[in-house]
Amino acid sequence: MTGPADNGEGTALANTSTGDNAATGVGVGIFNIQGKYIPLNSVINATTNVNSGSAIIGMAMVKLKGQTVTVGNVQSNLTVEVAHL
């Protein structure tokens, strides 16, 4: 999974929304089904049989360390590459 890193610690997806209506001080965190944080630009070895099940990835807004949050629009992107061997 890859995407633009935040400008804080680089551990969340960056808010790529721009302009006067863009939120600041927040990013998009990526989490597994148990709610554990998944590092950005990491490889996940999934053992889930997605033919008969599902692979769930959660996302949530996260406050960036040392930054002030302002209300506004949030936009980002995440690329997920799936290799079936």
UniProtKB/TrEMBL annotation:
Residues 1-22 are annotated as: Disordered. GO terms for cellular component: pilus. SUPFAM superfamilies: Bacterial adhesins. GO terms for biological process: cell adhesion. This is Uncharacterized protein. It comes from Cronobacter condimenti 1330.
